[in-house]
Amino acid sequence: MENRLLNKFWKFSNPVLFKKLAKIISPLAGLIAVLTIIPGLVWGVFFTSPDYKQMETVKIIFIHVPAAFLAINIYLMMTITSLVWLIRRHFVSALAAKSSAMIGVTMTIVTIITGSLWGSSTWGTYWVWDPRLTSFAILLCFYVGYILLWQSIKSLETAASVTSLFCIVGSVFALLSRYIVFFIDQGLHQGPTLSLDQEKNIDNSYYFPLILTMVGFSSLFVYLVLVRTTTELYKYKLKLIG
Amino acid sequence: MLNILRLEFLLILRSGSHVVLAFSFFLFFMLLFALSTFRDNFILSGIGLTAVWLSLLMSTLLTLNKVIHEDFESGVLDYLLIADIPIEVTLFCKTIVHWISVVLPLLLITPIVLLTFQISSYNIIKTVLILLLGSPSLSFLGTMISCLTLSNRSSFLLTTITIPFYFPTLLLGVFCSSSTTTNLFAFEYLLLYANTLFTVVLSPYISSYAIKLNYS
Amino acid sequence: MEKIKKISISINSLSCAVDGKVILDDINFSLTSGQSITITGRNGVGKTLLLNTIMGFKASFRGKIFINGGDLSSNPSNRQEQIGYFGHKASLQIGLTPREVLNYWKAFYSSDAITSDLIKFWELPNNAVENCSKGQRKRIALARLSLMQRNIWVLDEPTTNLDPVGKEKFLELHTLHLKSGGLSIITTHEPEQFKKSKMINLDRYRGNLSQC
What we know:
The structure holds three protein chains of three kinds.
Chain A: H1 2-11, H2 15-46, H3 61-88, H4 91-122, H5 131-152, H6 156-184, H7 204-241
Helix pairs in contact in A: 2-7, 3-4, 3-6, 3-7, 4-5, 4-6, 4-7, 5-6
Chain B: H1 2-14, H2 17-36, H3 41-63, H4 69-74, H5 76-81, H6 87-116, H7 121-134, H8 136-148, H9 155-178, H10 187-214
Helix pairs in contact in B: 1-6, 2-3, 2-6, 3-6, 3-9, 6-7, 6-8, 6-10, 7-9, 8-9, 8-10, 9-10
Chain C: E1 8-18, E2 21-32, E3 36-40, H1 47-55, E4 61-67, E5 70-71, H2 77-82, E6 83-86, H3 98-108, H4 115-122, H5 134-148, E7 152-156, H6 164-179, E8 183-187, E9 198-201
Parallel strand pairs in C: 3-8, 3-9, 6-7, 7-8
Antiparallel strand pairs in C: 1-2, 1-4, 4-5
Helix pairs in contact in C: 3-5, 4-5
């Protein structure tokens, strides 16, 4: 049973099938993104009470947290798709990693910018070398390295393999740096905003719009990655013909 | 293995202008730090340990293209791949030779340089010891990334994308150098040793895999 | 030279692609001890690509390569034991002298050949490779080939840049190699000099564009 399910899953590594699937899913994901991000932001920004200490600036949370969530998870996803490319040689997988890298960089930069705006009003400074902030700077470096490596190698297949290895090894070293940074300095930043452990979570009035924007950002990512991967596939095909 | 090390040393001896370059670069770079804090002994002794780590890192970075890139371009690597000696062993030897020829001379001159930075002799001995135990990972990580970037000749790319991989070593190294613990088996030191061992063991395997990927 | 056992290589419907484009399509040939094959074709037709594929320097290919009946891709250590290679680049460490170069490779190929004999045979100079001419570099590389002591020779244009004396020496060596049970795969633009050799012209094997 499980095996058959897996086989069905791997079938979509076929570029033609993937394109078909992308054609169905991407508008859906786009629609979900629009339908959740806009209401989520409107709800979050206009219909919640400001924090007693941080006043209105706290509402940056509705962009900051989803972007940070994506920035980390996109790298994780790239690591997984890279592994799939190296082990099973599905080219769609490598292209998916390539196309998510740019989105990952954007999300990391968005996180850093919104974070520093937030920090300027609550901590009184745009940037401190706090462990959380530092680990995002480190993450950004690995994203940029990945993209630089993709661009510097002409042969597509070699580039895909080499960047995949870079991504996998990089994820190990990014994590290593993160834990070392945390070991050296505990930092200013508050603890995680969302966790499965209900007691530590933020107030309900923030919780629901936040979940809404998180879902929205994630489906925006799905939409973008599908569109970009399809584009990459067409570009590859063009290169073969031309 | 000893024989291979000997032959690799012979290669460095015959065409190793980069060793002298790295050595001079290290001294010049340290001088830059010293000049930028000219006449302020307090800052000077504050940045001394950081400066020595950074200079070491930079001089290592600039010599990385000598480890494997030249062999790839001249085609020597093709013959190394089909040799009786496994490529992992060859890479391990090459990296060791790189460390001994490029990094070790810098460590030897470090005490003298640090003296001019107004750092106490106790701290100097400690720093050199930490550098000795931490710096092999710089060479080994460098080999790994240079094998990844074989397809691109630019050493600029190699330098740029190696830097993120040096974060853990730099963080731990500087932290240990400035830590006040005297126990060399304190947790931060153990982390540094673990980092070195981890990279030394992992690097040859990842490097050989990366070479094979570049040959596809 | 030691007695070489029976050896064979066969290449079954080999297709090579570079970046998704099929360059060579459906190549078949097989050789046994004492045989050689010359591969000819226009520049850029993919002669070197074929050799690189056999050597394992190019991973994207379809088809099978058998050495002594064993599939090479499932048993790559066969390559290390059997195949000696001579590439179109000289691939020498230019800082060393020929003697040092040969000693270097002697260690890497755990060979028991005597370096000074090879130097005498190929009349190698005593200065750094840097100052050697192209032909001299070719001679050093050919000396390395005999140093490998492998049964299957894969040679990429071994005679270009060699003077007539050098060519003769090489052909003599090649005949000896075949006589002692070896076999060889050679790309060349002058197939006439390899007498009694099989021939294959790659111009007929141009691949079509593959579908994505």
